[in-house]
Amino acid sequence: MYFAVYCLDKEDGLPRRLDSRPAHVDYLKSLGTRLKLAGPLLDDAGENPAGSLLIIEADSLEEARTLVAGDPYGAADVFKSVVVRPWRSFTGQWLEGV
Which end of the chain has fewer CB atoms < 10 Å from its terminal CB, N or C? Predict the structure, then answer.
């Protein structure tokens, strides 16, 4: 089952995001094929990260939340909110490297 993960950064989260980014990227890589899509949400100007959007595969909502809880951005106190919801792909094309 797929899960959409929608995270919004704290107003002062950008420095912590940048500091913990290498560990965050390593963590995402460690998810292997469970990670289907990941990238930053941008501010209104489209310039700076303001959150994260991920699509992950897990057996349950509990497992998805556990995977999200392991992200170093959480330990770095980057996010003001994190929402994990079951998600179903309906139409469109998944893009890589955009």
Answer: C
pLDDT digits (tens, 9 = 90+) for 44-73: 999 999 999 999 999 999 999 999 999 999
96 part of a folded domain:
no
Domain limits for position 70:
2-87
Quote the CA–CA distance of 28 and 32 in Å, as a whole number.
8
Q: Which residue has the tokens 């950008």?
A: 14
Interatomic CA distance for residues 7 and 52, integer angstroms: 5
Q: What is the CATH number of the domain that holds 43?
A: 3.30.70.1060
In SS3 terms, 43-88 reads as CCCCCCEEEEEEEEECCCHHHHHHHHHCCHHHHCCCEEEEEEEEEC
Sheet (strand 49-57) strand order = 35-42, 49-57, 2-9, 79-87
Full-model pTM:
0.89
